[in-house]
Design brief:
- The complex is a heterodimer of chains A (about 325) and B (about 400).
- Chain A contains twelve helices and 14 strands.
- With about 325 residues, chain A is an alpha/beta fold.
- In chain A, α8 (about 215-225) packs across α12.
- With about 400 residues, chain B is an alpha+beta fold.
- Chain B starts with a strand and ends in a 7-residue tail after the last helix.
- Classes of the chains: A alpha/beta (about 325), B alpha+beta (about 400).
- The interface of A and B includes residues 256, 288, 326 and 329 of A.
């Protein structure tokens, strides 16, 4: 397999294309995804290759998209339904939460719902309060759903392919600021296991667990902190649910300090969940209080300066780390 | 928020300390880790660091006070980092310590109430406990199962006349008093004396001294320490200590050298003296003695001895009865090296004679083995070349 440097959007596009070629039960549906190629060009060229039957443009009706996809999955197909903005998954939550997430359980395992809900969230592009939210914690809260948030092109491709092959409903959350980031991605087929975290940078002084776009912020913060002698271990859970607690605890056991970084509002966020679980499962390993870095509890403002203020920046991660890592006293 | 500055426990035998001086005044800004006051304890003076950053709001114990460990000696008004407290701090104080630090402390038996936290807000963190564990380990290795150190009986003696002056007991004096009293009360001390012809030793030292100056010339004490350190492994009962139910024969040969300082008697320890060559030993002893005289000896410098040497030769003393430095088994006293008439190769000539006084604990070792040790030492002093013939050191 040769490796190229391609964008996150292109990596997702390859995952869809390869899975559709590999398995004719796989199809995609959503708003503007056919001739229009999708708002972030993730479905570019799929309509031309696979035609209208497997690349289905839908009306602007999230409930219909999510419900139709859940039904198709129950009949044995493997739909990848796109909800253009996670903000509007609110309209589809009945189908996702009450139907897709519950069927397999309520029918005693006789029905499976191998659907992927692809969507994207996050702020930073001046899209204002209704198109900038990070709502992953809502779905993490629901038993029966798997929740994935890739941060790199490589992870995006491998995890989307794994999500499509997964027999449970997966909420696959991309980030609007990641689509045009680039990274090495192998050509051809590979999958990454769901439920497995990855250390993006090893370090001994503090674990910085970050999700989605915040992984990039954390890596940048880690590079700055390295200059002052603080070694951050940046851990990306990649799958929020099921969460790879083994990897989280192993890292905390090594560094004894934890900063959790999410873009979502701190209150009730995924960061709160990680902090609580580490408090429960690795209390004796902690040498400092767990820090959460997250957005302020405000709707995302439209004005660029206020928007930047409302969501975490590199300096916030740096400050949280400095707060709990003692100045090295030993030379 | 206020942080109490407590009198820390710096050594295992410490139960009180004297504040020598305050390095900050009330109202001064202090940084966590900055030296705050000088504390004299057992036998050393150390700087105690501020546990937190803020303002030194009150000094409760002025310089000169002698206080038990754990005593609050000052209060720092800490920098308010976040939410100010809603109400006044409750009086009962909880030790601020991270979960990891608490667990480590429990596992290693560290009393966290005696630690100072270096974390934010004075929280005790892993580093603090690890440092304490290291100190404990060092102290344990040095193991000081000193017989019950009862408080110095300072019962007032019936007045024998007015006047005179009262001198406060420094902590060096107090520790010296307690240790030596304990030694005198518990040890079955016997002192053997002998006179060695040290002419070759004198000659040896003169030759070393007349070399082109590269290395410092060893003192007579250094030379004797060098020789006896090589002899001790063959006489394990003199390099031993008394423990609860057993006699521990020690593997290491750590020779303490008694040093008279302005602050009192100190005994810095030359570790593994049997493994050091003469230049290394000379250098190490000069360094330790200088530190002790300057009042900068650390607890590590003063513990872990297995045998002590004390030299009163410079005062013209000949033989004396040294008191054993517990928990060691023996101590060697060196008298003045002086030219005296002596019988040498059947003629009466002037020779440099060195009186030796060996005190040993008869509980651990009988008179004959102790005498054999003294004899071997005397032989070695009279002919240092025996070191190379294997005589007197067949332990290798």
């Amino acid at each position: 397999m040769t490796e190229r440097i391609i964008t996150y959007a292109k990596a997702l596009n390859e995952a869809l294309r390869e899975e559709m070629r590999r398995d004719e039960r796989v199809f995609v549906m959503g708003e503007d995804i056919a001739e229009h190629n999708g708002p972030f060009r993730v479905t570019e060229g799929l309509f031309q290759e696979f035609g209208a039957r497997r690349v289905r443009a839908t009306p602007i009706s999230e409930a219909a998209i999510a419900g139709a996809a859940a039904g198709a999955a129950l009949t044995g197909l493997r739909p990848v339904a796109e909800i253009m903005f996670i903000d509007f998954s609110t309209l589809a939550t009945d189908q996702i939460v009450n139907q897709a997430a519950k069927m397999r359980y309520m029918f005693g395992g006789k029905g499976r719902v191998p659907v992927v809900y692809r969507t994207q969230g996050g702020a930073g592009r001046g899209n204002a309060a209704q198109h900038s939210q990070s709502l992953e914690a809502w779905y993490v809260h629901v038993p029966g759903l798997w929740v994935v948030q890739p941060s790199t092109p490589y992870d995006a491709k491998g995890l989307l392919k794994a999500a499509i092959r997964c027999d449970n409903p997966v909420v696959f959350i991309e980030h609007k600021r990641l689509y045009f980031t680039k990274g090495p991605v192998p050509e051809g087929d590979y999958t990454l296991p769901l439920g497995r975290a990855e250390v993006k940078r090893a370090g001994k002084d503090v674990t910085v667990l970050a999700t989605s776009y915040m992984v990039l912020m954390a890596l940048e913060a880690a590079a700055q902190l390295a200059a002052e002698g603080i070694e951050c271990e940046v851990l990306d859970p990649r799958t929020l649910k099921p969460l790879d607690m083994e990897a989280v605890v192993a890292s905390v056991r090594k560094t004894h300090r934890l900063v959790v970084v999410v873009e979502a509002c701190r209150t009730g966020s995924f960061a709160s969940e990680v902090a609580a679980r580490v408090g429960e499962e690795a209390f004796d390993e902690l040498d400092a209080p767990i820090q959460r870095v997250g957005g302020d509890d405000v709707p995302i403002p439209y004005a660029a300066n206020l928007e930047a203020e409302a969501i975490p920046q590199i300096k916030d991660v740096v400050a949280a780390v400095r707060k709990i890592v003692p100045p090295r006293r030993r030379s | 928020m206020t942080i109490d500055v407590i009198l820390p426990k710096l050594t295992t035998t410490m139960d009180e300390g004297t504040i020598v001086s305050w390095l900050k005044q009330e109202g001064d800004a202090v940084q966590a880790g900055q030296p705050l006051f000088e504390l004299e304890t057992d036998k050393v003076t150390m700087e105690v660091e501020a546990p937190a950053s803020g303002t030194l709001s009150r000094i409760l114990s002025p310089a000169g006070s002698t206080l038990p460990i754990g005593q609050v000696v000052a209060i720092i008004a800490a920098e308010v980092s976040q939410a100010p407290s809603q109400t006044a701090q409750p009086e009962e104080r909880r030790v601020k310590i991270s979960p990891l630090a608490r667990r480590l402390a429990q596992e290693h038996g560290v009393d966290v109430s005696l630690l100072e936290g270096s974390g934010p807000g004075g929280r005790i963190i892993e580093d603090d406990v690890r440092a304490a564990i290291e100190r404990l380990a060092a102290a344990r290795a040095a193991a000081l199962p000193v017989p019950p150190a009862r408080p110095l009986p300072v019962a007032p003696v019936a007045q024998t006349g007015g006047g005179g002056r009262l001198v406060p007991i420094s902590s060096v004096r107090r520790v010296t008093a307690e240790r030596l009293a304990a030694s005198a009360h518990t040890v079955a001390r016997v002192t053997l004396s002998a006179e060695a012809d040290a002419s070759r030793l004198v000659d040896w030292r003169e030759r070393l001294r007349s070399r082109p100056r590269r290395e410092p010339t060893p003192t007579y004490t250094d030379l004797i320490v060098f020789l006896l350190a090589r002899l001790l492994p063959d006489h394990p009962y003199l390099n031993a200590r008394f423990e609860a139910d057993a006699i521990r024969l020690l593997d290491q040969v750590n020779i303490g050298v008694a040093v008279d300082t302005e602050r009192g008697l100190l005994v810095p320890v030359l570790r593994e003296a049997d493994k050091k060559d003469l230049p290394a030993l000379t250098q190490e002893s000069a360094r330790l003695i200088e530190k002790a005289r300057a009042g900068r000896a650390t607890p590590e410098d003063l513990c872990g001895g297995t045998f002590t040497v004390t030299n009163l030769g410079m005062y013209g003393v000949e033989t004396f009865t040294p008191i054993i430095n517990l928990p060691e088994c023996a101590i060697l006293g060196l008298g003045q090296i002086a030219a005296k008439p002596a019988v040498y190769r059947n003629e009466i000539v002037a020779r440099h004679m060195l009186p030796l006084s060996l005190s040993f604990d008869h509980r651990l070792v009988d008179g004959a083995p102790a005498a054999r040790f003294l004899q071997s030492l005397k032989d070695l002093i009279e002919e240092p070349l025996l070191l190379f013939s294997g005589a007197g050191s067949d332990h290798e």
